Amino acid sequence: MGDELGSFLRARREMVRPEDVGLPRGERRRTPGLRRSEVAILAGISVEYLTRLEQGRDRHPSTQVVAAVAGALRLDRSDRRHLHELVALSQGTDLLCGTSCPGQDPVPDGLLSLLDRLEPTPAALVGRRTELAAWNDAFDAVTRPLGMLEGEPPNIARYALTDPRASDAVPDWEAFADATVAWLHRHSDRNTVAFVNELSRVVGESFTARWARRPTGELDLGLRTLVHPEAGRIQTDHQVLGASDELSLIAQLPADDATAEALDRLTGRRPGALREVSL
Q1: Are residues 225 and 134 in the same domain?
Q2: What is the pTM of this model?
Q3: Is residue 215 part of a domain?
Q4: pLDDT in tens, 131-154
């Protein structure tokens, strides 16, 4: 996973403009972002050491160095957390996927009960490789007509990147594809490698280039806007919660009245079933 750490640092370095950190752009700049020498100065480390980090030749940076590089690259809270995760992975301290992996052991009854309780809100449990481990009836009603629930188990990244129906189902397909790749990067462990290799073989350069670019954004899997054959355009706000070490819970909340009405029709919910109680 040393390559993951290095590629993350390089990708973020190339995203920071010199003017963002008070440096002149100059006329002979070959890199789209900061030079290594500039990041090294901002972080208070040597260029040689930063080079070793980016090339995966040093996998044991101190906490102080990690914090300094994160500050130099202007990383937000989410990216800082991911950087620390990648450092841990590069040192071999990650947990290997064993018998508790989604698809091998049943989803805990408590999580299945929670999905049921969330009805009529569409909700699903998603694994590290965007595999769908479980979902409720409302999520089924929204996504099955789009072809998203095919496969054993269904996989959102595979659907986004290999199924021609995905571009019709999700109007902003580029953002959809970016979001699935961002999810894979952020939740990566050693077992992600085989899936990434599979997508590289099947999809080719359009995936490998996107993977190398390390797209950023909210970890919502890009499903905020869908075009449903019965309900039309659906706009949702996503809530993503860590349900376990391997699973995340995604709930799709209606973003507007039209979507709320459309979801009510799809799920058979009677409008006004929930009432506010004044105290």
Answers
A1: yes
A2: 0.65
A3: yes
A4: 999 999 899 999 999 999 987 789
